[in-house]
Amino acid sequence: MVAAAAAERVVAELREQCATPAARLDGVAAAMEEEMRAGLEHEGGSKIKMIISYVDNLPNGSEEGLFYALDLGGTNFRVLRVQLGGKDIKPESREVSIPPHLMSGNAAELFGFIASALAKFVADEGRSNGVLNGRQRELGFTFSFPVRQSSITSGTLIKWTKAFSIDDAVGEDVVAELQTAMEKQGVDMRVSALINDTVGTLAAGSYYDEDVVIGVILGTGSNAAYVEKANAIPKLEGELPKSGNMVINTEWGNFSSSCLPITEYDQALDEESLNPREQIFEKLISGMYLGDIVRRVLLKIASQSSIFGDINRTKLKTHFILRTPDISAMHHDETPDLRVVAEKLEENLKITGTSLETRKVVVEICDIVTSRSARLAAAGIVGIIRKIGRGTAGNKEKTVIAIDGGLFKHYGKFRQSLESALVELLGEEASKSVGIKLANDGSGLGAALIAAAHSQYIN
Ligand code: ADP
Ligand code: MG
Fold first, then answer.
1. CA of 79 to the centre of ligand 1 (A)
2. Where are the domains of the chain?
3. Which of the listed CATH numbers 3.10.520.10, 1.10.1370.30, 3.20.20.70, 3.40.367.20 matches domain 1-53+202-440?
4. 391 lines ligand 1 (CB under 6 A)
5. pTM for the model
6. Cα 352 to the center of its chain, rounded Å
7. What would the pLDDT profile of 309-338 be if each residue is shown by its tens digit?
8. Residue in 219, 194, 184 with CA at minimum distance from that of residue 113
9. End-to-end distance of the chain based on CA atoms, in angstroms?
């Protein structure tokens, strides 16, 4: 009984510290909006970089031809080929997981690995796979890390995030590195667009639905892009784009604010991470981290109570051993005796013979951590909606947010929680003008669409 009481104390404290009542979320949305403005003002104006994407027009359906895309995310990369023309487009793609040692090696090795996968993909293409008509192959490159773009086809890496840390790539032009690696592999292909995954998601979303003006990634990491009025971007130099618009990659992952509910577990996770004091918002909400936050809470419980029995804590002390798909599986466990929870605890942490009560505690921890994450993501989205003057009760325009990423795609309770927080924040009436859409693999498809819009064969 004493043991259970100690565990309950840890959970009660967690519940309180992670609480995200509407008032707090409103504060987060307001702080996000303020940081967005500051970041648009001038370079370095905010922790969130508000990067100019050089995408000033979203796809409109007139894009034609055969295009490739390469989508480098946080855990995998995808190569994709798509014949554009007509609404019913069917991309072919292949997913390759990135060997962990390449995430911290050197740039030439990483880009070499990517280019060789691309070379294989190209070599395997049959005659039926679209028509090049003697043209050079063109590629849209989705690179999901902060890049300072200098044009639609060039940009230097500002820093790595997520599990990547390759020092010699920082400050280098990622397109030039890819182009060099492709040449070494004998792949004759031109990079026609360099984009962020959020921009790709936004582009793919708006291809199918013109009301899509925001693209969000909730996968290994988290970020958002949106369509801004060019004249609302003081730091935009030179002539304003004809469209009057510019897509901004917010890099909201680096947002932080005193409004955020931060616990001792988040602080420890941050300090022990590859990028301490950076990407604070991302560390609270994205798939790379949720499992590890839960693990840290379980470790604290194991040290203060005996609800897990007499266990060896070696596994429980191992960083990232509990992954977000595991906590998703436990959270969705509908068996009467929480069998899935028991299996996951045993499989990942070598915790056996748990009681039903203990399993329920674990589910509650998953629920607390995930709903905080989903609700904070919703607050970020509301910050953007408010920045562009949408989502109010009198608003006639529809505002649709395209979302891609494994966390959103596969974690049902996360998705529900995000959706209900949006309604809570915007109000029933206003939320009717706001919609959310899954943009499945939009980040890759969007790159192909933007590459088509910037094809060398368009005059
Ligand atoms: P990337 O960020 O590499 O582009 P994805 O968008 O495919 O990759 O997202 C992968 C991330 O999604 C994983 O790191 C994981 O955190 C999360 N994820 C994958 N499957 C699930 C799942 N079943 N439940 C919850 N989260 C998941
Ligand atoms: Mg991705």
1. 17
2. 1-53+202-440, 56-195
3. 3.40.367.20
4. no
5. 0.96
6. 34
7. 989 999 999 999 999 999 999 999 999 999
8. 184
9. 76
